[in-house]
C-alpha cells in the first residue's frame, strides 16, 4: 500500500515536472534575464530538472523493491531529494525577499545591472548548496550503520549520532522561523494593499501580485513544513526501532516535498502570455 502511494506521487511529480520544465524553458527565452525574479525562475528550472532526473531510479526501486545501482549512487539519489528541497526553498526566499524589498522601498522593480551579476549570484547559491550537500552525502550517509546492498533510502541508523540530530533540529528551526517571518510579512503586505485600494479589490494588479507572492509561501507550508514537523517525531523515535514502518512514513513525507516541482507545471498550464504577465507582476507592482 505504501509503495503505491510513493509510486503515485513520484509519477505525478515526474510527469507534471517534466512538462513544466519544458514549457517554462521556452518561455524564459523571451524574458528579461536581468530581472531578479526571472533569474530565480531559471534556477528553479535547473534544480527541478536535476531532481527529476533521479526520480526514475526511485520508481524502479519502489516497483522492484531491489536496488541494483550500488550504494554510492543510492547515496546520491537520497541526498538529491534534500538538496532539491533546500535549494528550492532558497530560491523561493530569494523571490519573496525581493518582493518585500520592492514593497517597502516603493520601487517599481528590481533588476541586476548586468547579466554577469545574475550569473554570479546564481553561482554563489549553487556553490553554497553543493558545498554542504556533497559532504553530507559522503560523510553522513551510510557510514555508521550496516545496510544491505540491495536496499536504498534506509539510512535511519545515522540518527544515532548526536551531530546528525543537531543539524536536523537546526534546519527545522531555520525553516519554520524563516517561513513564519515571510508569511507574516506577506499577510501584512496584502492587508495594507487591500486597505488602501478602492472599488473591487480583485481588479487591481498590485493585489494580484501580492497574492502570487503569498502563493510561494503556501508552497513552502504545504510541501516542505509537513516533512520538517514529522522529522521531529522521526528523530525521537527512529533510534527505538519499535515501528518498522517509520522509515516508510519518512519517505512519504519526503515525497511530498517533491510536489513543489509542480510549480512550473502550474505556470505552463496557464499559458505563455499569462505567465509572462504573472512573472512581471512578481517583480513590479
Automatic annotation (TrEMBL):
SUPFAM superfamilies on file: Family A G protein-coupled receptor-like
Single annotated GO MF: oxysterol binding
Subcellular location: Membrane
Top-rank lineage group of the source organism: Eukaryota
Any one annotated GO CC term: membrane
Keywords for this protein: G-protein coupled receptor, Membrane, Receptor, Transducer, Transmembrane, Transmembrane helix
Major localization class: membrane
Alphabetized InterPro entries for the sequence: GP183-like, GPCR_Rhodpsn, GPCR_Rhodpsn_7TM
Membrane-topology descriptor: Multi-pass membrane protein
Entries under Pfam families matching the protein: 7tm_1 (PF00001)
Record-annotated membrane-spanning stretches: 6-29, 41-63, 83-104, 116-141, 169-194, 214-232, 252-270
Gene3D superfamilies reported in the protein's UniProt record: Rhodopsin 7-helix transmembrane proteins
Keyword check for Transmembrane helix: yes
Boundaries of every G-protein coupled receptors family 1 profile domain copy: 2-233
UniProt cross-references to PANTHER family, sorted A to Z: G-PROTEIN COUPLED RECEPTOR (PTHR24237), G-PROTEIN COUPLED RECEPTOR 141-RELATED (PTHR24237:SF35)
Annotated protein name in UniProt: Probable G-protein coupled receptor 141
Gene source species: Python bivittatus
Amino acid at each position: 500500500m505504501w509503495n503505491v502511494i510513493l509510486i503515485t506521487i513520484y509519477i505525478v511529480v515526474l510527469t507534471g515536472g517534466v512538462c513544466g520544465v519544458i514549457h517554462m524553458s521556452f518561455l524564459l527565452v523571451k524574458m528579461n534575464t536581468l530581472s531578479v525574479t526571472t533569474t530565480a525562475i531559471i534556477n528553479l528550472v535547473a534544480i527541478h530538472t536535476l531532481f527529476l532526473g533521479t526520480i526514475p531510479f526511485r520508481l524502479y526501486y519502489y516497483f522492484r523493491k531491489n536496488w541494483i545501482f550500488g550504494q554510492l549512487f543510492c547515496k546520491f539519489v537520497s541526498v538529491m531529494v534534500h538538496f532539491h528541497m533546500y535549494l528550492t526553498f532558497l530560491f523561493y526566499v530569494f523571490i519573496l525577499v525581493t518582493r518585500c524589498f520592492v514593497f517597502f522601498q516603493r520601487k517599481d522593480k528590481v533588476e541586476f545591472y548586468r547579466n554577469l551579476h545574475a550569473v554570479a549570484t546564481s553561482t554563489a547559491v549553487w556553490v553554497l548548496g553543493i558545498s554542504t550537500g556533497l559532504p553530507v552525502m559522503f560523510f553522513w550517509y551510510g557510514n555508521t550503520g550496516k545496510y544491505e546492498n540491495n536496499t536504498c533510502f534506509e539510512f535511519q541508523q545515522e540518527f544515532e549520532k548526536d551531530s546528525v540530530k543537531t543539524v536536523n533540529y537546526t534546519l527545522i528551526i531555520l525553516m519554520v522561523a524563516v517561513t513564519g517571518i515571510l508569511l507574516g510579512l506577506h499577510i501584512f503586505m496584502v492587508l495594507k494593499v487591500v486597505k488602501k485600494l478602492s472599488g473591487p479589490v480583485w481588479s487591481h494588479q498590485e493585489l494580484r501580485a501580492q497574492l502570487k507572492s503569498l502563493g510561494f509561501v503556501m508552497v513552502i507550508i504545504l510541501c516542505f513544513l509537513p516533512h520538517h514537523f514529522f522529522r521531529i517525531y522521526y528523530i525521537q523515535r527512529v533510534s527505538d526501532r519499535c515501528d518498522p514502518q517509520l522509515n516508510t512514513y519518512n519517505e512519504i513525507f519526503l515525497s511530498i516535498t517533491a510536489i513543489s516541482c509542480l510549480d512550473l507545471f502550474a505556470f505552463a498550464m496557464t499559458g505563455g502570455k499569462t505567465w509572462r504577465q504573472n512573472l512581471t507582476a512578481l517583480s513590479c507592482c
